[in-house]
Amino acid sequence: MKLPTHFLGATGLLLLLSIASVTAQAAAPAVFVDDASAKGIAEIQTSQLALEKSQSADIKSFAQTMIEDHTAANKKLASIANGLQVPMAKETELMDRAKKTVLEYRDGSFDKAYVNNQVKAHEDTIELFNNEMKTSQTPELTAFVKEALPKLQHHLEMAKQLQAKYDK
């Protein structure tokens, strides 16, 4: 039995659309994992810099919390990424960029630059996580986001409190 040419064309088009849809869905988790892990690495790196450069006990305490929380979150995300077979951001590529980010915000004291960076970084990360929550079709990432968001929001509040103290 010979199929009509227009049938083969329509079938081919449907096949291409299906492949494109699967590819788009597969790309979405990879993009989120890369961006979220990069933001986590940046938090860790800038906070390590804060431990070295700050003389303020409250800044150092906040920085230590950021290191611990974002390290734990990135480990969890790495486990999910491994299961989904998507790569995490490369730490070595981000270390210098993270340190430069804090230095770009330097308007006087390191502490002021650090807390201003932390407020902006957490606002951006919360936006990324909220978008993932709305659009994710990956249950593992949705669960990760639901667990991480309250901590990120708490970090933002802590950073804003420090910003009020040091942004003078």
Which terms summarize this structure?
mainly alpha; 0% strand; single chain
Description:
By secondary structure, the chain is mainly α. The chain is 86% helix and 0% strand. It has five helices and no strands. The longest helix has 49 residues, at 5-53. Mean pLDDT is 81; it is low at 5-26.
Rounded to an integer in angstroms, the radius of gyration calculated over CA atoms is 21 Å
Number of separate helices:
5
**Which regions are unreliable across 5 or more consecutive residues at pLDDT < 50?**
5-26
What is the structural class? mainly alpha
Q: How would a crystallographer describe the biggest sheet? A: none
Ends distance: 81 Å
- The ordered H/E elements are HHHHH
Strand content: under 5%
Mean pLDDT rating: 81
Helix percent band = over 70%
Mass-distribution shape = elongated
Question: How many strands?
Answer: 0
Summarize the model shown.
With 168 residues, this protein is an all-alpha fold. Helix content is 86%, strand content 0%.
Secondary structure: elements and pairs:
Layout: H1 5-53, H2 57-84, H3 91-104, H4 110-135, H5 139-166
